[in-house]
Amino acid sequence: MRTRRLGKSAIYVSDICMGTMTFGSQTDEKEAFRILDECYDAGINFYDAAENYPVPPDPKWAGRTEEIVGKWMKTKDRDSLIIATKVSGPSHGWIKSSQRAGMTAMDRHNITRAVEASLERLDTDYIDLYQTHWPDHGTGFDETMETLDELVRAGLIRIIGCSNENAWGLMKSLATAERLGTARYQTIQNNFSLNNRRFEDELANICKHENVSLIPYSPIAGGVLSGKYNGGATPEGARFSSYINKGGRHTLMAQRFVNEKSLAATERYMAIAEEAGMSPVTLATAWSKQHDFVASTIVGVSRQDQLAPILAAAEMVLSDDIMKACDAVSKDILYPMG
User: Fold this and answer.
1) Measured between alpha carbons, how far is 90 from 101 in angstroms, rounded to an integer?
2) Which terminus of the chain has a lower count of CB atoms within 10 Å, N or C?
3) Alpha carbon distance 148, 65 (integer Å)
4) How many angstroms from the chain centroid is the CA of residue 122?
5) With b meaning 16 or more CB within 10 Å and e meaning fewer, what string describes 213-237?
6) Beta strand 82-87 with 297-299: parallel, antiparallel or unpaired?
7) Which three-class secondary structure state does DSSP give residue 25?
8) How would you class 96 by CB atoms within 10 Å of its CB: exposed for 0-12, middle for 13-18, buried for 19 or more?
9) Binning pLDDT at 50, 70 and 90, where does residue 129 land?
10) Which of 221, 219, 205 is nearest to 170 (CA)?
11) In which element (H, E) is residue 12 found?
């Protein structure tokens, strides 16, 4: 398993990261342990969680993901693990957090309480990478960056990152940290896949010039790039099969991921993968890793038997011809996810 540096930090991670957002809802503790053990044995040292996990957010199981990861960590050498988690952003917008009665924000009070609770659930005395889960541009950047810096100086977290951030927010945060002399964001965790290349428009350029690493999530586009939704299929147990009729945010999310353009693009990527003799999941994972602004690609499964095509991408480098074929699809079908 190749390793890469996170931003300008001293931390090196495997270029595949295991995401854990289904642990405690779709995936029970025993299955989660099996998944985590196989990943660890394959050379993955990087694991990503959040205080708001598992999904879908629900107060009845809020924080259970971190508890499961914390129990599993006790079976391994803590120094061999790079553990990432997140503090929820403001709950008055697109997402309402399942933590703190849905009254979350990026102020000193919420960040401090979130860190304390995550450390307790993970049963560890430090977090390697602590991330703001979604932006809170209404709260002063000074307060957010100063609070995160205090936690770094206290030794409770090693480095910080952001998630679901836009170009303005990332640059504003970096400029604030530079002005104040605080810790800076070393990573950004945003959606990036063959079906969603928006990150390349502006944010990739910032990452290159400012030495911030992308750790992309949803490289398989929420499972869409596996082809399981093609032909009008709604597989039982699949996320968007259930989301499509939930209404509100869930239905809008399902329509963004599963639509005429995204399925047409997926069909062409499946043909590229078939011609290359690999699974479309392997193709999508390998493609995500093969960018100079990416440090580690966050994958996720709900069952252990879904791991094989992902781990097959671990040492894979796609040929120039395959990369060009993928680029051709992106040019013909612009922005499948809007």
Assistant:
1) 12
2) C
3) 23
4) 18
5) bbbbbbbbbbbbbbbbbeeeeeeee
6) unpaired
7) coil
8) middle
9) very high
10) 205
11) strand 12-14
Instruction: State how far the Cα of 324 lies from the Cα of 197, in Å rounded to an integer.
Output: 15
Residue 2: alpha-carbon gap to chain centroid: 19
Q: How far apart are CA 283 and CA 193, in angstroms?
A: 11
Q: Specify the residue for token string 């104040």.
A: 180
Beta pairing partners, 299: 18
CA angle 254, 256, 261 (to 5 degrees): 120
Residue with token string 């307060």: 143
Joined tokens for residue 208: 């290159």
Q: What is the DSSP letter of 35?
A: H
Q: What is the pLDDT of residues 15-49, one digit of tens each?
A: 999 999 999 999 999 999 999 999 999 999 999 99
Tokens of 312: 């097959």
**In which element (H, E) is residue 3 found?**
strand 3-5
Structure tokens that stand for 283 in this block: 């193709």
Q: Delineate the domains of the chain, giving CATH numbers in brackets.
A: 3-189 (3.20.20.100)
Distance CA 40, CA 233 (A): 33
Q: In the β-sheet with 157-163, what is the strand arrangement from edge to edge?
A: 213-214, 185-189, 157-163, 127-132, 82-87, 46-48, 16-19, 297-299
State the catalytic residues: 53
Per-residue pLDDT tens digits for 83-100: 999 999 999 877 899 999
